Amino acid sequence: GQQVMQIPQYQHVQEGEDFTTYCNSSTTLSNIQWYKQRPGGHPVFLIQLVKSGEVKKQKRLTFQFGEAKKNSSLHITATQTTDVGTYFCAGKESGNTGKLIFGQGTTLQVKP
Amino acid sequence: DAMVIQNPRYQVTQFGKPVTLSCSQTLNHNVMYWYQQKSSQAPKLLFHYYDKDFNNEADTPDNFQSRRPNTSFCFLDIRSPGLGDAAMYLCATSRGRGGDQPQHFGDGTRLSIL
């Protein structure tokens, strides 16, 4: 079945450094969503990308969807301690009733 | 505020003793999902309802059942919990299914098995 792989699994950065997590699918995705889960919290929707090559920004966060719609990335510029958490990508299976397939997540630790 | 509410936040049950987790939503969304999330893992979809249409994932154990008596409420029943069922259980809703809409998650119920 369809798989969504996410790397790295863990990332430790110094506050102020940049951070990137990558998401790769075994098949073409209809769209991709990104969620953030704070320690002890629940996943919170960040953004959805639909178009090939799409780039969206939310303040220090930049989201990209690959040209082939099989990969995506989330880049955080100048990390802050409030960025700590696990970032999940979730790709939609092809087909009208395709469900979301979650990646394994990247856990970000930020050292002040 | 419109939201997804899960009760209780923490649930302890005994091995083999049935347990029910509840979820309610004020978003009036058509779709409600139940996920199981174990430590350091991605949420794993157990099943979802599109209105009253129940959709079970192929690898969801028969031990797990769900009920949706109305739009607002959804229940997860674990008939005979085993030690491997200890996890965080997340309820989520979306306006439509098919992965086109954002999913709104509740705070989860952390289930412990004694």
Helix tally of chain A equals: 0
On the 0 to 100 scale, the average pLDDT of chain A is 93
List low-pLDDT spans of chain B. Answer: none
- The H-and-E topology of chain B, N to C, reads as EEEEEEEEEEE
Shape of chain A: globular
Question: What is the helix content of chain B?
Answer: under 10%
The biggest beta sheet of chain B reads: 7 strands, mixed
Low-confidence parts of chain A, pLDDT < 50 over ≥5 residues?
none
Describe the structure.
The complex is a heterodimer of chains A (112) and B (114). Chain A has strands at residues 4-7, 10-14, 19-25, 32-37, 44-49, 55-58, 61-65, 71-76, 85-92, 100-102, 106-111. Chain A is an all-beta fold. In chain A, the strands form two sheets. In chain A, strands 2, 4, 5, 9, 10 and 11 form a six-stranded mixed β-sheet that branches. Chain A has a five-stranded antiparallel β-sheet with strand order 1-3-8-7-6, with no helix packed on it. In chain A, a hairpin with a 5-residue loop joins strand 7 (61-65) and strand 8. The radius of gyration of chain A is 14 Å and the shape is globular. The mean pLDDT of chain A is 93. Chain B is mainly β. Chain B has strands spanning 4-7, 10-13, 19-25, 31-37, 44-50, 53-56, 64-67, 73-78, 87-94, 104-105, 109-113. In chain B, strand 7 (64-67) and strand 8 (73-78) form a beta hairpin. Chain A binds chain B through residues 30-31, 33, 35, 41-45, 48, 88, 90-93, 95-100, 102-105, 107, and chain B through 40-45, 48, 90, 92, 97-100, 102-108.
Question: What's the layout of helices and strands?
Answer:
The complex is a heterodimer of chains A (112) and B (114).
Chain A: E1 4-7, E2 10-14, E3 19-25, E4 32-37, E5 44-49, E6 55-58, E7 61-65, E8 71-76, E9 85-92, E10 100-102, E11 106-111
Parallel strand pairs in A: 2-11
Antiparallel strand pairs in A: 1-3, 3-8, 4-5, 4-9, 6-7, 7-8, 9-10, 9-11
Chain B: E1 4-7, E2 10-13, E3 19-25, E4 31-37, E5 44-50, E6 53-56, E7 64-67, E8 73-78, E9 87-94, E10 104-105, E11 109-113
Parallel strand pairs in B: 2-11
Antiparallel strand pairs in B: 1-3, 3-8, 4-5, 4-9, 5-6, 7-8, 9-10, 9-11
